[in-house]
Amino acid sequence: MAKMLKLRLGVADDPTALQPSLNDCLEALLGQADLLMTDVVQGLVRAATAQGAQRIAAFQRPEIRAAIDSLAGDTRAVCASYKAELTRIVYQGGGKEQAHTEALRYEDLQLFGDAELDQSIEVARAQQEVSLAVDDVLPQLDAVISTLLGWRTIQPGLNPLRPDVFVRALQSCLAQHVPEPAVREALITPAAGLLGVNLRKLYRELADWLVSTGVEPAVPLGGKLQPGSGSVGAAVGGSMAKTLLNLDRLRKLLAGDFDAPPKHEYLHTVPASMAMLQDMKQLDALVKRLEQRPKPEAPQQAAAPESDAMPRLGHQLGAEVVRLMFDTLAQDERLLPAFQERLKAIQPAVLRLAQEDSRFFSDRTHPARQFLDRLAQRSLAFSTEKDEGWPRFLATVEHAVRWLDSKVIDADTFGELLDSLQAQWTEHDQAVRQRREEAARALLQAEQRNLLAQKLAADFEEAWAGLEIPQFVADFLRGSWAQVVAQAQLSCADGSDDPYGYRALVDDLVWSVQKSTAQRGRTRRLAHMVPGLLARLREGLQRIDYPPELTSRFFDHLVAIHESALQEGRDAAAKARADAAEAQPAEFVDSVADPWLAGHEAAESGYVPDEPLSAAELDAIAGPAVGAPSEPVSAGELRTGTWAELWAEGQWLRVQLTWASPHATLFMFTSQAGTAHSMSRRTLERLRAQGLVKVVAERNVVDDALDQVAKAALKNSLDGTA
């Protein structure tokens, strides 16, 4: 199969040929889908034989052999189904958003029945098989695909050819051709293993092909390509493999099934999980640390009565969940070491609470969960211990530690503590909030004006349709003057469409610059109109604080055209100046391409202009260490509250997305000191693509830590432990 792949992809056949596009790359790989699935079916047939080195004993069951025979007898239809589904996912659902929605989530565990739980484990095991097979070649493919996508840094989550895409297509294909769920579960993991072997060859040849055509690999986020970034990790061994936690028990813990009596009233609002099999290597590191922890000898105890067994097991599982959660927080590079030390001091109080109140695990609004959420999220405002406000914040954390050491621990204690912390933070927050609200009002006004200006620009074009006017005048009306008319309408309390007559001025301006001079009495009317027209135009631009330097050349060109018209062609020099003016390119704001802000609006909101840096300037910028960054998303999908690193004014700043306009055209980030940095959607997208905005945390840190607990439970379920 390797020779066939290399022949079809043409690896290194012609290094001087044009570089392939992303679509060329996708088409080349999709062209191998039939071969991939054919090899999978042939491998299943070999595994179902009565004798042979590849024989699988479980495949000797009649129902499984019948299913494999059916797949082999209809291989062409099976391959067609697989290719169709793979094509659909790659082009329509290959992005990270769908992958995340289909992954097992922490909150889903409460809702799963036994069948859904078993199916999730089987699919996860299939993803593990494929990921382990392509582990060593996937990083290089991610690097070149990221370049084709337009990113300077490697973005594995955006690769439309990720391993889970092929597993999802395999799952769908088997669902179409193997109707019995139990048989599908028996087939999917071996099938995924066969798929992974050939996918590894395909990934390597595809990456080699792209590199040979001159595609430069993107830069790793950490500055060094990490082999094995696609792996979901090796099997867990040692003490962690023998822990009690697995998906089924975690589900019961969240549902309160280990309580006495059972409690089922808190089955909601648990954090959404990241993709379950991403970041498994981080989990493996956590497992190794747990294995090295000294294990105290358990004292000899009499056998507990059966009535106490369930609550006792619930306490053990609860302690394990709390321990895993705090271990994850202790290893989170986004949290400063001094803060992590204080978290260790808080852990015993949380553990005591969890032993008595299982709502901590299932109710996201529980006071203890809220306390941890607020504390951890606030700590993200600081990237170093030298940041302004860090000593003040750390003092409040130490106050929280002393509070918990001196109180009887229950939900009310954490509620009172949270109220106390909020009171200490309020004074600083109020000043920051006031500045943020003032900036948001300016940005909201700008968005409303720009949206209305876009509509007015379309109306203006209809007004001069069929008329011959200079291009620079048309650009001025679509851009700058549309802003003037829009601001006039928004500022009018009585709802008038043209309170200052600026809309009517469009018709006068269009008439004054028409090339046709056949109208009788035109010169006399033009001489009477021009002085007032120019004065009204300048008045309108001043009303919106429009920069004079952007309109000075416009007025020079407009005056040249008017002078030539008044001379009725008698002055050759004036006519030459008018002809030159008509050929001038546009130099005004485009209301459609990017929102425009007045000077005071830009100053109040810290507006970042869309001024791209050169390649040399980008290469000179060293990116900050942001721990385990979230997968990139488009600007419109960033959620308010997201923490990020922003390159501004020659330095990296830790900022939080505190406001987004209703139509997602303007965004505002705020630092801990209250300084605002706002930008348009286009600017934000450019900064993300150039690596000048790096997401630090899109979700709550505690939610991420609990996701790691779910990953640990999934890993134990995959390995058949517990």
Present the secondary structure layout.
Layout (H helix, E strand, L loop, with lengths): L1 H8 L12 H9 L2 H15 L14 H12 L1 H18 L3 H7 L11 H20 L4 H11 L14 H15 L3 H32 L25 H4 L5 H9 L24 H13 L13 H25 L6 H20 L2 H4 L4 H13 L10 H16 L5 H53 L7 H21 L12 H9 L9 H22 L8 H16 L4 H11 L16 H7 L9 H5 L23 E6 L2 E10 L5 E6 L4 E5 H9 L3 E5 L3 H19 L3
Antiparallel strand pairs: 1-2, 1-5, 2-3, 3-4
Helix pairs in contact: 1-10, 3-4, 3-5, 3-10, 5-9, 7-9, 7-10, 8-10, 9-10, 12-28, 14-15, 14-28, 15-18, 17-19, 18-19, 19-20, 19-25, 20-22, 21-22, 22-23, 23-24
List keywords for this structure.
mainly alpha; 722 residues; single chain; flat
How would you describe this structure to a colleague?
With 722 residues, the protein is mostly helical. It has 28 helices and five strands. It has a five-stranded antiparallel β-sheet, with helices on both faces. β1 and β2 form a beta hairpin. α9 runs antiparallel to α10 and α22 packs antiparallel against α23.
The amount of helix comes to 55-70%
DSSP summary: helix tally = 28
Proportion of β residues? under 5%
Total number of strands: 5
The low-confidence runs, each spanning 5 or more residues with pLDDT under 50, are 1-17, 94-103, 226-242, 261-291, 295-307
- The end-to-end span amounts to 40 Å
Biggest sheet statistics: 5 strands, antiparallel
Outline of the structure:
The protein is mainly alpha-helical and 722 residues long. 59% of the residues lie in helices and 4% in strands.
